[in-house]
Amino acid sequence: MIIGFHGVNIPELQNSADAADQQTAVVPSAALPSLTHDLSPASQSPAEPHQPALAQPKKTGPGALKWVTNQAKHTWGDITGGITKLGHGATVKNGLSDSARGGQALACSPENLKTTVETPEQHAPQDRWHRIHENLQSNSFTRPFLSQAHADKLFWDATGGTLLSGHWPKTSRVISSGVLALGADLNIVISDSPLRLLLGDRWFDDGHATIGQPSRAVSTRPPKTVADLIRNEHTADKAHGSIQITTIWQADDTVRVNVLLPGTQNFKPKDNGNPLDMNGDLVTMAGGSSTYEQDVMMAMAWAKAEGRIPDGARVMLVGHSGGAMVAGHLAANTDFVNKYNITNVVSVAGPTDDDSIDPEVKFLEIDGQNDIVPKLDLGGAAFPLIRSQAPASPNHSVVSVPDKQLQSLSDELDDHFDTTYAYELKTTDDPVLIRYQNQLRQDGFLNRPGAYASTITIPMGRK
Fold first, then answer.
1. Closest listed residue to residue 426, CA positions, set 236, 226, 234
2. Does pLDDT of 140 surpass 60?
3. Is the pLDDT of residue 46 over 70?
4. Distance of alpha carbon 145 from alpha carbon 185, whole angstroms
5. What pTM did the predictor assign?
6. CATH of 209-383+392-462, one of 3.40.50, 3.30.2420, 1.10.3470, 1.25.40
7. Which of 31-35, 145-149, 212-216, 298-302 has the lowest mean pLDDT?
8. In this predicted structure, what is the pLDDT of residue 394?
9. Better-predicted residue by pLDDT, 83 or 158
10. Nearest to 370, CA basis, from 392, 352, 397, 349
11. Count of helices and strands (H, E) across the chain
């Protein structure tokens, strides 16, 4: 016989209680608070709204699992905040769109240089991991560990990874990547201790790239000589933390582009937002792609999209010191060389002897006899300091500039300045320089009758 009490079916209640007893045995203790009586209005009998229902255990198995799942989702949401979820339509990437260019500044990354609409099924997972990486980078606790992981990978690539690929490690790569790895460990100690209050954070931390609002195009004179190219690079150097892109239109409608890469501007291994610093130099010399290099790639992508690097135009990179290292590293990247039609590189006072330049790139290396910086790559010596026996590449020309006699430390510093190189090249009759200069003029990179040029300045940054 079925007996009803306050509208409750007793057999059903008994079955529910038996099921709850069985489920309780497998419910974790953390989920036990969910096994309370539900006295909410939704659980009351419609016929008697003020009469509380008899104590009915919740369905604890699915409920407990749902509770744990929700807690995990909330925790994951704290890490991955701002990430577009699947099933919510398209993911819009904000970048260098026309509307953005009208703003005060641009914050870009290699993934969002253009404003595009993408289907989540194809791109959302990659976007998620990119956003997760950005969130971890912005966290003061996790960022030092990401920096350490990057430095450790560079050290492995320079040593064990090189050996596994069938090559002997280069001394300069082993030393620079080792310094980065030790510096990253030091950064963790500083960042996670009271030393952070005294010394700050982000030591030996190269971060990742961002570029700012490009300037308006300014009419400039096309360079006439290699010395003019170096003086133009010095102009870019004065625009602190920026590079310049000069587009040259010749009278015969050919277009040439000079990308001017300044040298190191911050000699402390501590991030101050300017990627032209010692951290970037160490990453580049260790064989990695530095923030400076990524900034250059982003700036050139913008220039190409805006017609500042037209399709088919030949492109030359002109770099001084740290900028020369970046130019050499980019010239060794065949995909990059083909994408932007890089035909020439002028390296001034940069340690670029051991760069594996693409054979299609005509590379001119200009070193000072007393300048120590070009010698920092140790001539491409294998580890430990075994002199390289590799023959010089036929597309790699070297000009040695005779410096004045050293009398003090300041003379050594003066010998490294780009302005010093530009001045000394005016009095140099080196046949290698003259031949390369004539080739540049013939190819349209130097001034010819009827040519005109304009230059844009693109600020670079690190976050």
1. 226
2. yes
3. no
4. 8
5. 0.71
6. 3.40.50
7. 31-35
8. 80
9. 158
10. 349
11. 16, 13
